[in-house]
Amino acid sequence: MKPWNFTPPPASELGDRQVPLHGTHLQGKRIALLITGSIAALKAPLLARELRREGAEVIAFTSTEALRYTTLDSLEWSTTHPVITKLTAAAEHLSDEDPFDAYVVAPATYNTINKMRYGIADGVITSTLASALGKLEQGQAKILIVPTMHGSLHNQILTASLQQLQCWGVEIMTPKQAYGKDNLPDLRSIVAAVSRLVSSSPLKGIPILVTGGPTPVPIDNIRRITNRFRGTLSIKITEELYLRGAEVQLILGTGGDISPAHLPCKMAPTYDRYSQLVLEQLQEIPYVFGIFSAAVADYQPEQLFAGKIPSGGAMQSLKLVPTAKIIERVRAEFPDLYMVTFKYQEQVSHEELMNIAQERLGQGYNAVVANRGEEMGENGEQVAYWVSENDAPEQMMGKEGIARAIGDRLEELI
């Protein structure tokens, strides 16, 4: 445990109930958070704050049973709004004057799911959901339910109800299944699902391939050659596109950062596997965009040694040969793919970097994200440039900023 000298925390510009923003994918969206009687309801205040961190305005609705596991004070504190626990003359379940963009039932119990399916409206939650289904039919709102219950309750009745609700257009989120239960997924995954559900981005439904991380080449069964890149930026790009609703697939080299559980990700433990995955994906799915940020190995040993090379002098020299350039093969075999490639340089000027990027464009690639190791922002942020034909280079700052700028550029292209 780190020693503490008992100094107070530094001052913050945030008020007590304010939250720092992670993003703006729910900016301007009103979310009804419907909380039912499951022990998982204790996480509802934290979920409300996570939704707000993407810019959402959150109003909590609770059943009487839900208040056995969470409290009015914690929900009001976390949402900054009064909690709706009963229906009044204001007809809170209709929300006609201040409509919701999405209704999120988390946790969603066996009782609530089945009542929703059969149109039973006998309380705050079920009456609100009855109205929400009508708004869904009219294209005025979205509904996401997160089933949470013991495995013995996951019976044929529940399955039939979930199938019927899905048929009506209700989004059903896959629970985290463990220890014989349908558990609440991690909160960030729920926020991502809500963001995708309400997204109006032109990228919604567009298939996009992203690659990132190192692509190690083995020397023997134990040792490998790799690089220091971790794939952080590729994960940020994938997250940004995923939240906008794109059908994005990440291929990530091992030995770097770990992708969040909610992102579609295939791991590439070696350069050969990376190359195989890229080609397989492009052959199977008609991707519109390919974003190639992986730090692909340039060289590999001429010979792969079986087993483990004995310690000592056996590895004093190692003959390396160039690897095949996978992006060149992709460019040749998939001419309709809009390819965004990355170029990292050191010990070059900005002008030289731009010239290198222009040379890459001249080789038939659509856009280049170029950066120099020496150029960083005031706070050490990565600085990169989007370079494409007929446009002036666009500076992008910080990994999150780079990811947002790439998303904006792809939206313009769509």
From TrEMBL:
Residues 203-411 form the DNA/pantothenate metabolism flavoprotein C-terminal domain. Gene3D superfamilies: CoaB-like, Flavin prenyltransferase-like. Pfam families: DFP, Flavoprotein. InterPro entries: CoaB-like_sf (IPR035929), DNA/pantothenate-metab_flavo_C (IPR007085), Flavin_trans-like (IPR036551), Flavoprotein (IPR003382). Residues 29-165 form the Flavoprotein domain. This is Flavoprotein. The lineage of its organism: Bacteria, Bacillati, Cyanobacteriota, Cyanophyceae, Desertifilales.
